[in-house]
Amino acid sequence: MDRVSLLIGPIGQLVTAKSMPWRYGDPILVLENAGIAVNGDKITDVGSWDSISRKYEGKCRIPAEESLVTTGLVDPHTHLLFAGSREDELELKLEGVPYEEILRRGGGIYRTVSATVSATDDELRRILLTRLFEVAKYGTTTIEVKNGYGIDPDQEIRLLRIINDSSVNAPIDIIPTYLVHVPPRNMDRREYINAVINSLDNARGLAKFVDVFCDEGAFTVRETRDLFKEALRRGFGLRLHADEIAYIGCSDLINEFSIASLDHLLNLPEQNVRLIAERGSVATLLPVTILSLMSSKRPPVKALRNAGAPIALGTDFSPNSWSLNMQYVMELATYLLGMTPMEVIMASTVNAAYSLSLRDRGILQPGYLADIVIWDVPNYRWLSYELGRNKALIVIKRGMILESTPSGTIISKECT
């Protein structure tokens, strides 16, 4: 028998995609009485428990007879690094106060920018790590983290450095993104775009992607095009906040650029649904934000599905949509967007990983990272069927079990 570091099994039900990206109707592997062999940080074998238990001897074994097992969740869209909060503004929104008036009173995004810029590096690292410990408890094993609350390019580089510094002590993997969020209120827009472009040289090695908030009240299509050209020239991948508030032509940029992910898409026109599918981009949907905006609009899930566009899901954690829980996203995607239980699993694992250009995770197959969640549910239908409970029983990151300490931090340990 071959010796491995970890055996998981027997497993009540194992669910995984067979390839990436996953499109609606693609094959899925669903195994009952399954087993997984892990050696180090990689999956060695997946199959029936009878076969796995005959072939491998594990240093440790985790039984999961009554559990669903999937790969770890991937959150591909977060604004995780900021200081302060804006809970008082929820009451203003409920009273019907327009966002423009909230801004005039000193609230909104510029309030968060002020709090973030004023915080020390140590304070921001502590805030970020606390949130990373929290997301890991819900089964997220890889997360994208944007800057964006510095506005000033020097501050945005500072935030990227903090994200990278924090990754050393983070329990899960971080994918940093340089977000060009909103224009400053006291600077010529063209001068600001040029300053951001100049800062991209300093962002090399600190961010994998450049993301632009292209929308009404944010950046124009022309400004986004200029930023994308310079980002590509410097080797960054591209992500795009598009068609959230209004359609002003932002998603049309799919005609000109290879964009890894187009996110939000509440006002996506039908002709661009087909283009997203044809270009191999991912449509990342953010149902918590729809809820927090109290919007009646929905992204065109059926059209995306029918066109064969890969769909991913993310939390969009921010001061305006405060949820670190990808399970909640999955639940909302089913009840709010009409996505099937299997569809939301694929959107939260393999497709979310694909949207971040990660090809080594999101699937339970030999050679992939051993990012695994053992769930306190009997089958895949339960994950988005049951509402409001943390259903993650055991979270495994790179072959190591993540465990909460009394202080609230997360540590990695070998199975014993």
Fold and architecture overview:
This is Imidazolonepropionase. Residues 113-377 form the Amidohydrolase domain. InterPro entries: Amidohydro_3 (IPR013108), HutI (IPR005920), Metal-dep_hydrolase_composite (IPR011059), Metal_Hydrolase (IPR032466). One of its GO terms (cellular component) is cytoplasm. Its EC number is 3.5.2.7. The protein folds into 2 domains: 2-71 and 362-413, Urease, subunit C, domain 1; 74-355, Alpha-Beta Barrel (TIM Barrel), CATH 3.20.20.140. By secondary structure, it is α/β, with parallel strands linked by helices. The radius of gyration is 21 Å and the shape is globular. Helix 8 links the parallel strand 10 (209-214) and strand 11. The protein has helices at 49-55, 88-94, 99-104, 109-118, 121-137, 153-167, 189-203, 221-233, 270-279, 287-293, 301-307, 326-335, 341-348, 350-355, 382-385; strands at residues 2-4, 6-17, 28-39, 42-48, 56-58, 61-71, 73-75, 140-146, 173-180, 209-214, 237-242, 261-264, 282-285, 311-313, 372-375, 392-397, 400-404, 410-413. Helix content is 34%, strand content 26%. Helix 5 (121-137) packs across helix 6, helix 7 (189-203) packs parallel to helix 8 and helix 12 packs antiparallel against helix 13. The strands form 3 sheets. The protein has an 8-stranded mixed sheet.
